[in-house]
Design brief:
Helix 1 packs antiparallel against helix 3. The longest helix has 32 residues, at 59-90. It is built from 6 helices and no strands. It is elongated and about 70 Å long. By secondary structure, the chain is mostly helical.
Length: 144
């Protein structure tokens, strides 16, 4: 409701926090992930895993193919989340106050932490940094 009434601000001048640069950053990241998915999906698609040639591969190459295929497959979801997050930032729905240095936070609708997700080293980290908003929602206790 604060956004509709024009109260979505933390400064005394009443200016809206600058949301264009963070929104464009998410847009370009989303488009980059879309292009990577479009290119790599041609080489690593799930239909190949049902072909006889796949079953003749050595076990290590099968594992490698499945690992790359899974990563490429998740790029589709990451791209969509980045594009929708950019639109939420641009409309100020994702505004989440300011950090300790006074910078505007635009992570209220964040669904993926790209840097941490791409560099994670454990299955738990992968879950923690992917589908963030849904994981937070599921962790809330259900009360009547």
């Amino acid at each position: 409701l604060d956004m509709v009434e024009g109260k979505l601000t933390d400064n005394s001048e009443g200016k809206r926090p600058d949301c264009v640069f963070p929104a464009m950053k998410r847009l370009f990241l989303g488009l980059a992930y879309t292009m990577v998915f479009a290119v790599l999906n041609g080489y690593y698609h799930e239909d190949y895993m049902t072909e006889p040639a796949f079953f003749e591969l050595p076990l290590l190459r099968k594992y490698l193919f499945v690992m790359i295929w899974a990563k490429v497959y998740l790029y589709k979801y990451a791209a969509v989340w980045l594009l929708t997050e950019g639109s939420c930032i641009l409309s100020s729905l994702s505004y989440n106050g300011r950090d300790e240095r006074g910078n505007a936070l635009w992570d209220a609708c964040s669904n993926i932490n790209l840097r941490k997700y791409e560099m994670n080293m454990s299955f738990q980290d992968g879950i923690h940094y992917f589908n963030i908003t849904t994981n937070k929602w599921c962790a809330q206790p259900v009360t009547s």
